[in-house]
Amino acid sequence: MAGAEGGAEPLGRSRAELAWVEALRGDCEPEQHWRHRREFLLRNVAAPPPAPGSAELQRLVSLSMVWANYVFLGCRYPAQVMAKALDMAHGLVVNSAPAHSAATTTHHLVAKKG
User: XRN2-binding (XTBD) domain spans which residues (predicted)?
Assistant: First the structure.
């Protein structure tokens, strides 16, 4: 599959697959985040896609969000969750993700306010 960096549609996907994945986009999800999370979902979905509301779909969507939050927002999760999400994202390239430092944590920001 071609990378989604340039905004191109995923190659080799049916209209049904694209409609299925588009229904999973968050209402306020930025286009850049969505392009990469969509690729994550399409790379990891079984055929046929999991049923709406199923535990399998909830797990896939959750792991896609863990990965996107890690890449774009610098969020951290338990080691086992991170390992699974990163394994599922293997080979997915994001050239435009921001750099996050260890000093930019919630505790650090809250401490500065007080």
Answer: 21-113
Give the domain extent around 76. 15-113
Domain count, the chain: 1
The string of pLDDT tens digits covering residues 14-65 is 888 888 899 999 999 999 899 999 999 999 998 788 888 899 999 999 999 9
* Packing angle of the helix pair 15-22, 31-44 (nearest 10 deg): 120
**Residue that has been written with the tokens 């293997």 in this structure:** 90
- In this prediction the pTM is 0.74
Question: Closest Cα partner for 69 from 48, 85, 54, 53?
Answer: 85
